[in-house]
Amino acid sequence: MDKIIHNIKKIRLFLLNIVNGLSVEQLNEIPEGFNNNIIWNLGHIISAQQGICYVRAGIPIVIDEKHFANYKPGTKPGHYVDEQEVQNIKDLMLSTIDQLATDYEKNIFDNYTKWTTRYGAELGGINDVIIFLQYHEGMHSGIVMALKKLVDKQSVQ
Questions:
Q1: d(CA 18, CA 53)
Q2: pLDDT tens-digit profile of 84-133?
Q3: Are strands 115-116 and 122-123 parallel, antiparallel or unpaired?
Q4: Which residues, listed in sequence order, are joined to residue 116 by a DSSP beta bridge?
Q5: Which domains does the chain have, with CATH numbers?
Q6: Cα–Cα distance between 146 and 150 in angstroms, integer?
Q7: How confident is the model over 147-156, as a mean pLDDT?
């Protein structure tokens, strides 16, 4: 499982590299045809991981409750994300995956309740969840790459 968590961290580092250099305005921009933006996707990756790893295991989340509420599944961008919040999200992209690795090693996820995702994946324990995270974060990586192409094009015009 350590290798999978390491791969998830690589995905997050890749995403941070992709958005490096984008302005706060570009990160907040919702292009035509989309219902979210780049920074929401990054915040969502963090909240979704907290929800499916910690909340579903009956363990307190390791992020601020306000962040969790703003970006959890079922939400959409609801406010302008300023420079300070952007930096916080970027920091959480790495710190939360590092904390997951630490908590996994401590074996704190022993009270996990089986459930089925909206995509039909049956998750019966933390190992299933961590494997699913690769899929979820990969999906949002594709969205971020598409959004970046659009906000880059619009800033050039």
A1: 26
A2: 999 999 999 999 999 999 999 999 999 898 999 988 999 999 999 999 99
A3: antiparallel
A4: 122
A5: 2-156 (1.20.120.450)
A6: 7
A7: 80
**Exposure string over 95-116, b if 16+ CB within 10 A, otherwise e:** ebbebbbebbeeeebeebeeee
Structure tokens at 39: 């920074």
Q: Among positive and negative, which fits the CA dihedral 151, 38, 86, 137?
A: negative
State the burial class of residue 86 (Cβ atoms within 10 Å of its Cβ: 0-12, 13-18, 19+). Answer: buried
Q: What is the pTM of this model?
A: 0.94
Q: Is 29 in contact with 48 (CB distance < 8 Å)?
A: no
Residue 157 has what pLDDT?
47
Q: Look up residue 112 and give its amino acid.
A: Y
Number of Cβ within a 10 Å radius of residue 153: 10
Query: Which residues make Cβ contacts (< 8 Å) with residue 72, sequence separation at least 6?
Result: 44, 47, 48, 51
Listed residue (145, 45, 140) closest to 90, CA to CA: 45
Report the distance separating Cα 92 and Cα 62, nearest Å.
Answer: 10
